[in-house]
Design goal:
The N and C termini lie far apart (59 Å). The strands form three sheets. Strands 3-2-1-4-5-6 form a six-stranded parallel sheet, sandwiched between helices. A six-stranded parallel sheet has the order 11-10-9-12-13-14. A two-stranded parallel ribbon has the order 7-8. By secondary structure, it is of the alpha/beta class. The protein is globular. It has a domain of 195 residues: Rossmann fold (3-Layer(aba) Sandwich). Helices cover 42% and strands 14% of the residues. It is built from 17 helices and 14 strands. Helix 10 packs parallel to helix 13. The protein binds nicotinamide-adenine-dinucleotide (NAD).
Length: 434
């Protein structure tokens, strides 16, 4: 099939490349010329394991191409996927749909023959209806359907190839059949193909993310209780998660949830519910609790280091919101590092995905190229992101300051081993943390 992905970010680039890899002809379009030029010269603008190789393979086989010319891309495709960002509007909890609507207006101008328009971006209930209104001048040319994306950064290729479910929301049978054909290579490997109304599909995406955010927040709050009661939160996760009705995933205590989806989608869901005068009090509490968590963890840093942070050397291991991605959106580090620097701390950080523009202008914040340079003078090391290369650091060898402390926000290390090595170690929701 001939496909066009509008928006070549984490979702558009990964799914476009994977669609090409299962035999489709795909054009990835982006308004950002820099991205398109990089892609044409064989460089992925994002860090995602395995993606570079897959792009090269499909680009060379001419199944995958890149363009900033939306006109040509639209007219040579039968199915158009909208994969642009849907961030939170500044200063509110509402979803900023301006990229989506702008995109639809461009499509309206350029389309000459019948297309299926697929919303892959995460959009609030009713957005498909709004889009139909925009397209009403050429109504007969478009079928607007919802096909929310569930891939996780860091595991995106695997998630595309083996999704738990493929959700298609439409009110037209023909569109279902076309989408079923497109996804048939994944369905034949066992992925569930689930059809519902367009509004239903839009809500499934928000509901899923809000539920996962709730699980994380729940275990984070329990971790606080565990710290006060001398209980190991990991035993609670295991004991609860072994119940099939609950499941163990997303029950690991750690920092506040972050990333490009959970923070904005929990807010987006609440704002939709507000519009319909429905009080989603549970999701509202989750948002508040997650916000408070960053403050709580910063307070703990104060406690670990003593009241003043002036000239304290703090080294971060990892700053992205999770491993195997370069995505910084809503990472806990974005709140923590500026705060610590403001209080006079000298902050180093190392992240395997490289230096971050977000910290370039912050006084007293320095990127280091490797674990050793990052940590050797530290008073406090904060493990924020559990990249594989952090799993087996010999801290006693790496850090010169013999009085250093280690704050493990992902419970990556074994407290017993830390005790044996006489490392002053703090983690999340485990008895040794205070
Ligand atoms: N990142 C994830 O893990 C993930 C997972 C599932 C769903 N989603 C959803 O998918 C959507 C996209 O997310 P993302 O992380 O890929 O965003 P992103 O910011 O990485 O990419 C969006 C891209 O769209 C481009 N763009 C914006 N307007 C355009 C236009 N008019 N024409 C052409 N290109 C345009 C931007 O330049 C950018 O490259 C969001 O709604 C998000 O909630 C994201």
């Amino acid at each position: 099939m001939k496909l066009c992905m509008i928006g070549t970010g984490y979702v558009g680039l990964v799914s476009g490349t994977c669609f090409a890899d299962i035999g489709n002809q795909v054009i990835c379009v982006d308004k950002n010329l820099d991205k398109i030029n990089k892609l044409k010269s064989g460089i992925s603008p994002i860090y995602e394991p395995g993606l570079n190789e897959l792009i090269k393979k499909n680009y060379l086989s001419k199944r995958l191409s890149f363009s900033s010319d939306i006109n040509q891309a639209i007219n040579s495709s039968d199915i158009i996927f909208i994969c642009v960002g849907t961030p939170t509007k500044k200063g509110s909890i509402n979803v900023d749909l301006s990229y989506v609507f702008k995109c639809c207006k461009e499509i309206l101008k350029k389309t000459k023959k019948k297309k299926i328009l697929v919303m892959k971006s995460t959009v609030p209930v009713g957005t498909g209806d709004e889009i139909e209104k925009i397209l009403k001048k050429k109504k007969k040319l478009f079928t607007v359907i919802s096909n929310p994306e569930f891939l996780r950064e860091g595991e995106a290729i695997r998630d595309f190839r083996y999704p738990d479910r493929i959700v298609i929301g439409s009110n037209e049978k023909r569109a279902f059949n076309t989408m079923k054909k497109l996804y048939s290579p994944l369905i034949s490997k066992g992925s569930k193909f689930f059809t519902t109304s367009r509004r239903g599909a839009e809500l499934i995406k928000y509901a899923s993310n809000a539920f996962l955010a709730t699980k994380i927040t729940f275990i984070n709050e329990l971790a606080n209780l565990c710290e006060k009661t001398g209980i190991n939160v990991e035993h609670i996760s295991l004991g609860m998660g072994s119940d099939n009705r609950i499941g163990g995933r997303f029950l690991r205590a750690g920092p506040a949830y972050g990333g490009s989806c959970f923070p904005k989608d929990t807010k987006g869901l609440v704002s939709t519910a507000d519009k319909y005068k429905i009080n989603l009090s549970l999701v509202k509490s989750v948002i508040k609790s997650n916000f408070d968590r960053v403050n709580l963890l910063t307070y703990r840093i104060h406690k670990i280091l003593g009241s003043s942070l002036k000239n304290k050397k703090i080294s971060f291991l990892g700053v992205t919101f999770k491993p195997n991605t370069d995505d910084m959106r809503d990472s806990t580090s974005l709140q923590m590092i500026p705060y610590l620097c403001k209080k006079g701390a000298l902050v180093n950080y190392y992240d395997p995905s490289g230096e971050k523009r977000e910290f370039k202008k912050i006084k007293n914040c320095f990127f280091k190229n490797n674990i050793n340079d990052n940590c050797n003078n530290a008073d406090l090391i904060i493990l924020l992101t559990e990249w594989d290369e952090f799993k087996s650091i010999d801290f006693k060898k790496v850090v010169k300051n013999k009085n250093f402390k280690l704050y493990d926000l992902r419970n990556l290390y074994n407290p017993e081993e830390m005790r044996r090595n006489k490392i002053r170690y703090f983690s999340v929701g485990r008895p040794n943390t205070n």
